Each structure stands twice: as structure tokens, then as C-alpha cells.
Automatic annotation (TrEMBL):
Lineage: Bacteria, Bacillati, Bacillota, Clostridia, Eubacteriales
Highest taxon listed in the record's lineage: Bacteria
Membership in a protein family: Belongs to the PemK/MazF family.
Native source organism of the sequence: Clostridium porci
Keyword Ribosomal protein: no
SUPFAM superfamilies: Cell growth inhibitor/plasmid maintenance toxic component
GO BP: any one term: mRNA catabolic process
A Pfam family per the record: PemK_toxin
Key words, A-Z: Toxin-antitoxin system
Molecular-function annotations in GO: DNA binding; RNA endonuclease activity
Protein name in UniProt: Type II toxin-antitoxin system PemK/MazF family toxin
InterPro entries cross-referenced by the UniProt entry: PemK-like, Plasmid_toxin/cell-grow_inhib
Length: 101
């Protein structure tokens, strides 16, 4: 299997939307990846972050975190995000789990 990196945008078999890999590269070595869907629809919220690459334009839905086993699904890498965009998205996801003591 080709290496999957945080920030990669994938087209995954049996999924309608592209997905953004948000798990880190060490985790991705186990062939499971944590992803968020990229929608063509847009609602203005703190958890819907617009992205644009040469190949893909859409909105990452950060509240729709999913674990995928890529050993059992066909997939193709379509594009990748810039580091700064990945940081903004992973910060938004982490904010969901922040402790509010």
C-alpha cells in the first residue's frame, strides 16, 4: 500500500465525497486512517472549513470524523493540503474534545 500522509485528500471506494486524512503519519502506518469528509455544500460554522486545491474545492466537515480501514477499500490519492490548512483543521477537531473544567 502506498504511504498515506496527514493532509492527503483521497477518493475512497463506496464513499460519495472525497475525504481528508487527519490522523498523523505514524498512526496511518497501520493502514487505518482517520478522515473527515469534504462536502460541496457549505454552512458557515466553526467546524466547516473551506479548502481549495488545484484538484478539489469544498468544505471539510470536522465534526464528521471517521475511521477507515484502507486494507479493505480501494482508494486513490487525489491531492494534498498545505501544512497550514491541515493545522487549522486538526485544531478545530481537537477543539471538539477540549476539557472545559
Amino acid at each position: 500500500m502506498l504511504p498515506i500522509n496527514q493532509g492527503d485528500i483521497l477518493k475512497v471506494e463506496r464513499l460519495t465525497n472525497y475525504v481528508l486524512v487527519v490522523s498523523n503519519n505514524t498512526f496511518n502506518e497501520c493502514e487505518n486512517v482517520v478522515v473527515c469528509p469534504i462536502s460541496k455544500q457549505w454552512e458557515k460554522t466553526a467546524l466547516h472549513i473551506p479548502i481549495e486545491t488545484k484538484e478539489v474545492t469544498g468544505t471539510v466537515w470536522c465534526e464528521q470524523v471517521k475511521l477507515l480501514d484502507l486494507r479493505v477499500r480501494g482508494f486513490a490519492k487525489v491531492s494534498e493540503l498545505q501544512y497550514e490548512d491541515v493545522m487549522n483543521i486538526t485544531d478545530a477537531i481537537q477543539g471538539i474534545f477540549d476539557y472545559m473544567g
